[in-house]
Amino acid sequence: MSLTVVAPAPKPLTAYRPYWAKRFGSAPFLPMSRAEMDVLGWDSCDIIVVTGDAYVDHPSFGMAVIGRVLEAQGFRVGIIAQPQWDSAEPFKALGKPNLFFGVTAGNMDSMINRYTADRKIRSDDAYTPGGQGGARPDRSNLVYVNRCKEAFADVPIVVGGIEASLRRIAHYDYWQDKVRRSLLVDSKADLLLFGNAERAIVEIAHRLAARQPVATITDVRGTAFMRRSDDDSARGWFEIDSTEVDLPGRIDDHISPYLTTEQAAASQGQSCEAQGAGPKEPQVAVVAMPTSRKTGAVQMPPRERTVIRLPSYEQVKSDPVLYAHASRVLHLETNPGNARALVQRHGSDAGARDVWINPPPIPLATAEMDHVFDLAYARSPHPRYADEHGGHDGATKIPAWEMIRFSINIMRGCFGGCTFCSITEHEGRIIQSRSEDSVIREIEDIRDRVQGFTGVISDLGGPTANMYRLGCKSREIEAACRKPSCVYPGICANLGTDHGPLIQMYRRARQLRGVKKILIGSGLRYDLAVQSPEYVKELVSHHVGGYLKIAPEHTEGGPLGKMMKPGIGSYERFKQLFETFSAEAGKKQYLIPYFIAAHPGTSDEDMMNLALWLKKNGFKADQVQTFYPSPMASATAMYHSGLNPLKGISRDSRRAEKVDIVRGERRRRLHKAFLRWHDPNNWPLLRQALKDLGRADLIGNGRQHLIPNFQPAVDGSYQGARRSNSTPARPSQPTKGRLLTQHTGLPPRATGAARKKPRPA
Question: Which pTM value belongs to this model?
Fold first, then answer.
C-alpha cells in the first residue's frame, strides 16, 4: 500500500463569484452602529460578527481578518464588539443579519483571558480599552450565542476562534475541574469552525447566500456540527470504533492512530520516503478500531468516507483513561493530508446526539495568505475608541493594539508540537507563509500610514520567529506523516531547515527607506536556528534590541520529554553562537530564557536542579508562569488523567506510562518558589523542601549553596544564622540579564511578555 495521501485541492479564496453587495465597496471601518451603516448606504448587514475583543481593524485581530475576508467576497459585515451580555438588546444594535451571526470569544480563550493559572481573576484585559478587566463574560461563546438567539431566533449562528477550536469535543475544564461537553452541545450553535477559518467561512457564507439551509452544510472541512445518532444522512460512512482501548483487531499500516509513518513503513519493509503504487480499491466494510499489526484480513475503507467514533462524553467524563485515549486519537487526526472525520456522542438516551468533526482545513497557499493580509485594513482601532481629541489616552488605549502596532505577521502554524501549547491545535503543523513582497508592502504601509511610527518595526514573526517557509521536503511525505512534531525528539530528516528566505527578507526589510531597525519579538526556535549559523549571525548583528527571548522551558529530561521540547544542550549551543556573534558585532546583548513551573512530569527534584542551573548562570526570575491546563492540549490530558498520551494508552499498568502531576496549592507554590530561588519570601518553603529532598547541603551562606540559612526581617535585619566574613555582601548573585517565564499555550502570541499579543483568527 502506498504511503502517499494527497488532500483534494481546495477552491481558492479568490475564485468565488462576489456577492451582489460588492457594489458598495470597502468600508473605512466595518460598521459598529446603524449610523455608520447609513453613511455606507446599507439597509442591513449580511453578516454580523460578535466578538469579545475591542474592534481593531488590523490583521492580527480575528474579527478584522474574518470581516475583511468576507467583505472582499462582497458581503456587508458589521461588528458588535464586547457587548453587554445581560440582555439581548446590544445584539440588536445592527439589526437582523441577512445570513448569519459569526460569534467569537476573541483572540484569547475567555477563561484564560480572565483567570490566572491559580484561578484568580485578572485585573486587566489587553484587548479592552484602558486594559480594563470584566468586559467579557466567562465562556463568552456560550453567552453570546444565547443572546444572539434571544435577539433573532431564526438566524443561523456560526462560532469560531481559539475558544471554539479548543472546545470542539468533550474537554477537561481546569476552572471547574471537570470534563465539559463540546461547545456545540452547550451553545446549540449551528456550526463550529476550528483552526484558521477563512476558507470555511467564505464557503459557508456563499452557500447560505445561495439559500442553502444551514442544517445541510455538513461537508466543509474545518467545521463541526451536531446530528442525531440515528440520522439517515450518516449512511454510507464507514465507522471505526475507538470507544475503548486495547481492543484486538486489524491495524491499517498507514492510517492507524497508533502508528507513526516510520513504523507503518517499517512494517512493510520500506522507509517513510518510499512511495508505492496507488492505493488498492477499498472494500465496503465496517472495521473495528485498529490496534494490532497488519493481518491483511480486511482492506480499510476509503479515508474520505471514514469516521472514527471517539469515546462518548459520558465515557470520558467518568474515565480518565478514555479521556487520554480520546485526546491521543484526536491529536493524531490533525494532518489535513490524512485526517479522518471524528464523531463523539453526547447523551445516552434516545435523544443522544453526535458531535461530528470534519477533517482540518487545507492550509492557505502563499497567494491566499497574501490576499488575506493585503486587504483594506485601517490598521488602527475603530474611531469609537478615540478620545475627544481623536487620539488615544490611557483610558482609551487598547494594550494589545499598542503592543502589535508596529509588528508584522509573516507566517502561521507551528510544527513544534509542544504539548502545553494551543498554537498547533488551532493553526496546525503546516507552515503557511506570506510572500516576501507582501511583507515588504506591509512594512511600507506601516511607515506611511500608522501614526507614531519612529522607524522601528517591533517584530517580523508569528507563532515562532524562524519557521518562515520551513516544511517537509516532500509533499507526499508531509501528507502521510502522523508525527505530532517535526523537531522532537530530534529534527526530522525530511524537514527543510533552510533559513535563506528569512535572511533575505530581513536584509531587504532593513534597507527600506525610513526603516531604522527591524526587531524580532516572536519566540525563537533555537534548535532550528543553530542549523543555520548565518541566520543567527544576521539576527544577532542587526535584529536584537539588547535582549532576545527563547524558551528552553526546563533543564531536566523528565519534564522536557512531556513537553516535547529539546534538551538544554540545544540552548547551550545557541547561546555560544549568540555570544560569539554579539562579540563580533561589538554589542552587549543578553538571552532571556523562559521556564514553566509545575508542568506534568516535573518532580520537586527537577525544579531544584533547575533552580541550581539558574543560580549557576546568574538568572533571577522577575515573573513566573506556572503550567496552565488549556482545553484540549496534550499536557492537559496528562494533567487530568495522570497518563502520557504520547506513549499510547492502555489499561495495563505495565504498558501505560504514568505522569507525575503537580497538584495542590502548596506543591505548585513550591515549584514557583524554585524558579524564584532568590526571593527571601520563598526561603522558608525552600529550606523545608530541600530537607525533605535530602539536600540540606544546599542551605548555607556560601556561593555553592542555593539559599542562605538566615532570614531577612521586615526591618532589613537578619534572623537566624548571621553571615560570615567569607560570604558575599548580598544573599544571591547579581543577574546577567533579566528573566521572564512564559506559557506558550496562551493562544494569541507565544512569547513571554507578549502573552496577550494578538494573532489572526
Answer: 0.88
